[in-house]
Amino acid sequence: MAQKETQNSIYMFSSNPRAVLNRIKYREPVVEQNKRHVRYGNIMYDRRVVRGNTYAQYILSTTPQPDPSEQRRQQEAKRRAIERKRAKEQLRLRTPEPVEGRKHTDVQTELYLLELIDKIEESSVECQTDAFLDRPATPLFIPAKTGKDVATQIEEGELFDFDMEVRPILEVLVGKTVEQALLEVMEEEELARLRAQQRAFEELRSAEVVEVQRLEEQERRRREEKERRIKQQKEALQKEKEAAEKVAARTFAKGYLSDLLPRVYSMLREKGYFYDPVERDVETGFLPWVMAAVNNSLGKRCVARTVLNTLIMDITERRLEAFGQQDKK
Fold first, then answer.
1. Predicted structure pTM score
2. 12, 19, 39, 120: which one has the fewest Cβ atoms less than 10 Å from its Cβ?
3. Which residues is 33 bridged to in the sheet?
4. Rounded to an integer, what is the distance from CA 29 to the centroid of its chain?
5. Measured between alpha carbons, how far is 160 from 162 in angstroms, rounded to an integer?
6. Domain definitions of the chain by residue range
7. Are 50 and 150 in contact, with CB atoms under 8 Å apart?
8. Measured CA distances, 156 to 16, 46, 101, 159, 329 (Å)
């Protein structure tokens, strides 16, 4: 009974109940009424409405237990971070040593000064427990209540009217949708105009490129025709010159060799340069055939000997490899 009286004395209304005004427009600016700011008409923005339960509840953890390997990895990462911090502190520049006759003094730079003593006050406390007693169950932690619990009575239609509240939201959504649609249509039209302009520019450029190629091809054909005509004229002049030189040489040779051939034949016949046909046939036909047959026979013998040597070398290498493998085993 005493506890109920204590609770009734603690949980009291801090202000008189009042009706919450509804908004007329979407995102209506805050107006002053009776020198107080009027909040939004949503129940979630009213401070007098208590959210959640009013008592502590023990909730089991639904999160999965951490993996031992993950814990070891986190501990290793913490240890490395501590080592890096310690190394940085060692590498940090320190205050230089004091000069002779002086010494450094520690000064507190905190906002609140504390008394520094050499010996900390300590006290020893002993406790003897009963033997073989089971550990009692850990009591649930129930934090102490803070603040004040309030309540209010809300009648139907006091907070907000759905039809009236949803109208500005729908207007904004529809307006944004229509605006986005118009922007997309305008963008598509602009892209279509850009594509048409790009196609016209590409067609004009293609026509100009084709015309330039046609003019270049025409100039190339004219240049090649000119070079071909010049080359043909040079070849005709060269042929005329060679024909005149050949005619002159033939005339000179006929005049020079008219009586030379009979004298040469008679001189060669007298000196015995004309050979016997049978002997010539033996030297040019029979002897080369004999030499070719001999060379062919010798070549076959050399090839057979080379093949035999190759077979012997392969067999020798395989036996050496087999002996080597046996030695390794």
1. 0.24
2. 120
3. 36
4. 50
5. 6
6. 1-52+151-160, 161-235
7. yes
8. 19, 16, 86, 8, 99
**pLDDT score for 156:** 74
pLDDT tens digits, residue range 37-66? 444 566 666 677 666 665 554 454 555 566
Question: What is the per-residue pLDDT for 53?
Answer: 62
pLDDT (0 to 100) of residue 122: 82
Low pLDDT (below 70) residues in the chain: 1-46, 49-67, 92-93, 129-133, 157, 272, 275, 329
First-to-last alpha carbon distance for the chain, in angstroms, is: 98
- 3-class secondary structure, 33: strand
- The helix or strand, by DSSP H or E, that contains position 288, with its residue range, turns out to be helix 287-328
125's tokens: 């406390």
C-alpha–C-alpha distance, residues 166 and 160, integer Å = 10
The letter for the amino acid at 271 is K
Residue 301 and residue 283: Cα distance in Å, rounded? 27
Residue 165 near residue 23, CB atoms below 8 Å = yes
The H-or-E segment that residue 198 falls in is helix 162-257
